[in-house]
Amino acid sequence: MVVYMHFNMFQRKTKRYRVRRSGQKCNYRKLYRFDEDKVAWLSDHFLGESNERRGGALKNEDRMRTFLRVVGDPGFQSGVGEDVGIHQTTVSKTCHNFAAKNVGKGNIWLKFPESIEEMESAKAGWRSKYNFPCAIGALDCTQIPIKKPPSHGDEYINRKGFPSLNVQATCKFYETFSSVACGHDCLDLVNPM
To answer: What is the pLDDT of residue 24?
Structure first.
């Protein structure tokens, strides 16, 4: 028995892409927690150049904005997708790919002892000074209360309901800072190693 099939049955349907929103210029910092120029810098620094050339592929700045939107205001990925104009699965894949691609860049921002000798020295210091074995550093975060700024003051209200700045610090056993990040965007990283 011979079966003849007509090739028109297997033609692909034309793909239809959602119209993407570019975001409101007046709410840009509120939505993404950074100014446009800093989002462009983050995109270049963390994502590099994109080789993706498909018709509906996201540009790297769109990927960065999607990632920043998810981590800056964690909610439902479908809501972020609606805001940006992409599907929830694209939001999920974008965040996963961003995290996987940038795990190796942690050494630029996070500074810990690098050699075996430095690690052993740090462990010995923590053990002798504080009786705390196997530590190479300490990390803590706090909210520093501030007066509510007259412009954009609501951006500084923390989860406990008062205006503050977020501060994260790491220190060595001899009570010196190895890194400090302060502010709601924490881009001002001081690293006096």
So the answer is: 56
